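User: quick one, fold this
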Amino acid sequence: MNYTYTKEYNTSYSYIDCTGCLGLVEFMNLNQDMITEFCGSIGSDNATLRQKNNAAWIYTGTKVVRVDKLPFWNTKTKAVTFVCSRSPIRIELETDLYDENDKLLIAAKTEMCAIDLDTRKIRKIDSLEFPQDLEVVKTNMEDSFSKLNTEFEDADKVYMQEVYAGDTDFTRHTNNVRYVSFIMNTFDSVFYDEMTIRGFEIRFVRESKEKDILAVYKKKNTDGGYDFVINKEDEVVVKARMSF
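Assistant:
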């Protein structure tokens, strides 16, 4: 079965950041919504997996590979999501955002696996409510996930963040996009006026939950961008990289 999920978006006020354009956090929310709706359209959303398989999809990483242009407020766009890679325990989904003339604006790749809600161990895809005949669609990007930096010093710590109930999602763990917000909060609005994000990669290493205290670290890398890590005590929860 060859399948893509398509939806039109208007870059409404809730989708823009302080620059008036689609922000990184807002695009990550759009990407998450598209993946959720894609899974729902094939009968493999987390509500179904919880009920029928006692399992849930979790993200292991997202890479925003291509940022050609950030759509301005009130711009009409079209998002397309599809499976671009598959193994017995993981799938990769690509989300592409196009303008009204079908010009590609932004492209992101997200890697997911499913875990058992009791054991928290990875489940094989053929044990889930998932169309086994779903075909892989050719990707618009060949970039693979990178090995991200986790070596930071105390001087790189920017702030401490408590996880609140409003930061958690359906699985009762911190929502993936909230980590992106924590990272973006290491900059001020002047920074966003002067810099344009051209790429972003984030890997989700461990889960965190309500009342956990997280430490957010940031430092410049040799490519002129920034590396980030979010720790819970001495354990890495999230690692990320941003380029400009």
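User: anything notable?
Assistant: The chain has four helices and eleven strands.
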